[in-house]
Amino acid sequence: MAKRRMAAKAEVFTVPAIVGRLALVALGTMPLVMSCQPQVNDEATSGTVSETGSIAGSQSKDEPAKPSGSVGGVRSQKITFRTPNGTPEFSLQFKSSGGKLLDASGNVIANLILQSDGAVKLTDANNNVVGYVNQTEDAVLIESPKRSKTLFSFVQESDGNALLTRNNGSTVYQLTATDDGYSVDSGKAVLYAVQAKKGSGQLQTTNGQTVMAADGEITPAALAAFGFEKLSQAQQAGLAYALSIEST
What we know:
Blueprint: H1 15-26, E1 39-40, E2 48-50, E3 55-56, E4 77-82, E5 88-95, E6 98-103, E7 108-114, E8 120-124, E9 129-135, E10 140-143, E11 150-156, E12 162-166, E13 171-177, E14 181-185, E15 190-197, E16 200-204, E17 210-215, H2 220-225, H3 233-247
Antiparallel strand pairs: 1-2, 2-3, 4-5, 4-17, 5-6, 6-7, 7-8, 8-9, 9-10, 10-11, 11-12, 12-13, 13-14, 14-15, 15-16, 16-17
C-alpha cells in the first residue's frame, strides 16, 4: 500500500469517556460518557457478534498462533496516553510480534498478536479472541472474531484524507488532513482535532482544549484511532498497531 500523508480532584478518563468529552465540549455542554455500539450478526458463530467484537452465547477457543517472522521497521516502544492533567490513563506497547494495551496499573486490556499471514489477532485479558485487524492493498479491515465478517474498514486516500466505514459502506468517521494531523468529523459535525509531531501527540476539541495526550512516536492516523468511540479499546489498539506497521 502506498505511503499516505500522516502525520478540586484530578479527573480520570477512560477512552470512551474521553471521546464523549470531546464531542460534548464541542457542543458546549458538560462532559458525559457517550456509548454507541450497534449490534451485527456473525453467521460463523453460535452467538451474536457486536461491532466491538463481543460475543453473546459463544466463546472462541482459538489458540494464539505464532508469527513466522517479525515486521521490518517496527521497533519495540511504549506510548503512554495521559489525561489533560498529566495522569497516565493507559499505554500501548509495540513490538515486532504484536503488542499490548495496558491500563494505568499495567494490567492487560487487550493483546495484539501478529499472525503468520500478517493479520493481528485481538484478545482480551482472559485471552478470548475478540476480533482481528487485517491489512489489504486498499484498506485496514477490522474483522469479527471468526474472521467471517468485516465490521469496519479504514481507508487512507491519496490526498491524505481518510475514512472509517462500516461493512455496509456507511461512513462512521471522516478524517480531513491538516498541516499537523487530522480534523475528525462524523459527517454531521467536527468532533476533534488530531495533532502529532515527533515524540508526542494530542487530541483536542474544536476550541483547542486538550483531552488526551500521547508520549511517544505515534502517527496521526494511529492516534486518531483512540478517538473512535464506536470501536472497542481492543479494536482501537489493533487499528493503531496496523497503521503504525503500515507507516514504517
